[in-house]
UniProtKB/TrEMBL annotation:
Residues 30-48 have a biased composition (Low complexity). Residues 54-333 form the Sulfatase-modifying factor enzyme-like domain. Residues 1-16 have a biased composition (Polar residues). One of its GO terms (molecular function) is formylglycine-generating oxidase activity. It comes from Halopiger aswanensis. This is Formylglycine-generating enzyme required for sulfatase activity. SUPFAM superfamilies: C-type lectin-like (SSF56436). Residues 1-55 are annotated as: Disordered. Residues 18-29 have a biased composition (Basic and acidic residues).
Length: 336
């Protein structure tokens, strides 16, 4: 396990790199047609409630203990000190936004994601399709298992040659913070603050590492989608999934929310600050007024305790607002 900047969690784009016209795919096919083909005709028929109809769970809010003082935490990430925090009532999505839901947003608005505009996004090397391996534009220097792939985006999550046709109920990935905010604006939702995210994710539990307790796999039972085996060489997929899982896989937490740890990182509204717990308000904290990177919570299917155990409830991570990878998604909340 390392305490370095978590590029292993999700690498950042070092700047704007445009390798192709964002309105056309590399074979000249229109972007709209490419999206429709990737999603398939099943997108409309199989989509769960979308936009303003997305299922939400009303949460009462109140005082809860946020953060951790545990030795398993990363001090440099600002996971503590643990403290009492108050949040107002709000509603939280019972799961992360799905590919089907994001497809409806794009089809209605014509929105183009940051990954599409930049022309590439980060894909975990093991997941590359044969076609995608011919379109690698570089690697993340600190974690070479992350490769930049031309054409990788939300509807081609593993790069050229992949699609979302068989994963409409999986969380949308390759979405930047900017993309998540755009979706939320369309859906009359917003991203959660870090405090709201942790309140919702804890599901009424105080002080535990996970939504179900302190053991990752109580009695040998898998409760979330994280890396199984030896990272990054071999994933046994003993939890049932090599990559992302459906958004409602595994049992929900005490508030009825699914996959709040593992599966995909979830963007939060706040700018990231390692001094968060020492400088922000105790009532409805919103993070600093500005910054360079946005906060993410929850960990992903690529997390493993031997390298980065940031799939815990108190764990924090970050990335630049325009960055996108194959393990970052988001969950919406709303005012009540």
């Amino acid at each position: 396990m390392t305490n370095e900047t978590p590029s292993c969690c999700s690498p950042s784009k070092g700047g704007s790199r445009t390798t192709r016209d964002a309105t056309t795919d590399r074979d000249g096919e229109s972007a709209s047609a490419a999206k429709d083909a990737a999603a398939g005709e099943a997108a409309s028929a199989n989509a769960k409630p979308t936009g303003n109809e997305t299922r939400m769970r009303r949460l009462l809010g109140g005082t809860f203990r946020m953060g951790t003082d545990s030795e398993v935490g990363f001090e440099d990430d600002g996971e503590g000190p643990a403290r009492e925090v108050v949040v107002d009532p709000f509603a939280a999505g019972i799961h992360a936004v799905t590919n089907a839901e994001f497809y409806e947003f794009v089809r209605e608005t014509g929105y183009t994601t940051d990954a599409e505009r930049h022309g590439w996004s980060f894909v975990f090397e093991e997941f590359l399709t044969p076609d995608a391996r011919e379109h690698v534009v570089g690697t993340s220097g600190a974690a070479d298992w992350w490769v930049g792939v031309e054409g990788a985006c939300w509807y081609r999550p593993k790069g050229p040659g992949s699609s979302i046709e068989d994963r409409l109920d999986h969380p949308v990935v390759h979405v930047s913070w900017n993309d998540a905010v755009a979706y939320c604006d369309w859906a009359d939702r917003r991203l959660p603050t870090e405090a709201e995210w942790e309140y919702a994710a804890r599901g009424g539990r105080e002080g535990t590492r996970f939504p179900w307790g302190d053991e990752l796999e109580p009695h040998g039972e898998h409760r979330c989608n994280v890396w199984q085996g030896s990272f990054p060489e071999h994933n046994t997929a003993s939890d049932g999934y090599l990559g992302t899982a459906p958004v409602d896989a595994f049992e929900p937490n005490g508030y009825g929310l699914y996959n709040v740890v593992g599966n995909v990182w979830e963007w939060c509204a706040d700018w990231f600050d390692p001094d968060y717990h020492e400088t922000t308000a105790a009532e409805n904290p919103t993070g600093p007024d500005d910054g360079r990177v946005r906060s993410m919570r929850g960990g992903s299917h690529l997390c493993h305790e031997s390298w980065c155990n940031r799939y815990r409830l108190a764990a924090r991570s970050k990335n630049t607002p325009a960055s996108s990878t194959g393990n970052i998604g988001f969950r919406c909340v709303a005012n009540v």
